[in-house]
Amino acid sequence: MRHSRISRKTLLAAAAGLGLATALGVVPSAGAAPVPAGSAATYAAYERSQENQAATKAFFEAVQRSVAEQRAANPGAAVVTVTYNTRYAPSFRTQIARSTQIWNSSVTNVRLQEVSSGGSFSYREGNDPRGSYASTDGHGRGYIFLDYRQNQQYNSTRVTSHETGHVLGLPDHYSGPCSELMSGGGPGTSCTNATPNSAERARVNQLWANGFAASGLDAKG
Which of the following is catalytic: 125, 163, 180, 200? Predict the structure, then answer.
């Protein structure tokens, strides 16, 4: 229904606005309600929500558009380089670098590369009761938001590597085992695996075969 679509856009805009505000250290006004601290139950509820699925899908589509522009400028490249910046996530640069190393050593048809500004997407950090997520800023730019509290409760490199998996087109699958990266927080805080399994690696290589595949995001999860 039209009303539902409008509501979803409104939710996405709100999520993006909050993410940008926290990333830039914006303090809520005195009359604003305090943002409650996140919990495993809160993260799980958001991760399984339609809002999160829609935001993740919009994020991947934004990355696709950025890469499509790159492909148009250099159609002969066999491997696509997806660029990102960490300007608004200085606290997580070590985890992001590790996540990039993991993914670049796991797949062959796409490569992640840091740039000083701009890029196909960006990382941001801050506080959000929903935890970490991938979304858009309302202007067609994708970003990964890394929540402080969640990254203290869960293995931070796994969180970052999981969210980066969305960059490459993988959906959430919280019912999976710890060995499955996109199971995210499903296996609990004791799970520290930050590496995609063979099926996840194969899926990413398939999506990015021949330099770029304009395949839609499977929103199951």
Answer: 163
Q: How far apart are CA 114 and CA 133, in angstroms?
A: 19
Phi-psi map region of 45: left, alpha, beta (phi>0 left; psi -120 to 50 alpha): alpha
Confirm whether residue 218 is marked as ligand binding. Answer: no
163 catalytically annotated: yes
Distance of CA 59 to the CA centre of its chain: 7
pTM over 0.85: no
Q: For residue 156, how far is the Cα from the chain centroid? A: 14
**pLDDT tens track for 97-125:** 999 999 999 999 899 999 998 888 999 99
Residue 128 annotated in ligand binding: no
Closest to 221 measured CA to CA, from 61, 52, 106, 15 = 52
Domains of the chain: 80-208 (3.40.390.10)
Beta bridge mates, 112: 82
157 is in an annotated binding site: yes
